[in-house]
Amino acid sequence: MKIEHVAMYVNDLERARNFFIKYFGAVSNEGYHNVKTGFRSYFLTFEEGARLEIMNKPGMTDDEKGLARTGFSHIAFSAGSKEAVDELTKRLKDDGYEVISGPRTTGDGYYESCIVGIEGNQIEITI
Fold first, then answer.
1. Which residue in 3, 46, 83, 85 has the most C-beta neighbors within 10 A?
2. What is the predicted pLDDT for the residue at 72?
3. Residue 31, phi-psi category: left (phi > 0), alpha (psi -120 to 50), beta (remainder)
């Protein structure tokens, strides 16, 4: 069994799409729009085949996202090396994204950093 894809609602669909393309090398489909409901989505595919669906529809709520909350807490991307983790973390920080930890080696042996990415969602960058 494998996870086929993970989905997340976002307020700004185009900004979220461009974020994942720019920083994480996503390849996007042309998108989907249901004219009856106003629902829109893109499937973003990453290098190793993982997919993320980003979605938007009228009437969404946007509650505050505490870093320690129930439900999905972050998405993790493997950058391939310590140097790549460091470089991407610096690039995101230089572009104004908040780095909340690292880069560092965690107690369980991961080399990682965590940032607050698009729309307050936590993103982990690891080897």
1. 85
2. 77
3. left
Rounded CA-CA distance 70/127 in Å is: 26
Which part of the chain has CATH 3.10.180.10? 6-56, 74-126
Q: In the CATH hierarchy, which top-level class contains the domain 6-56?
A: alpha beta
> Three-state secondary structure along 85-96?
HHHHHHHHHHCC
Buried b (16+ CB within 10 A) or exposed e, 23-44: bbebeeeeeeeeeeeeebbbbb
**pLDDT (average), residues 55-64:** 91
**Average per-residue pLDDT in the chain?**
94
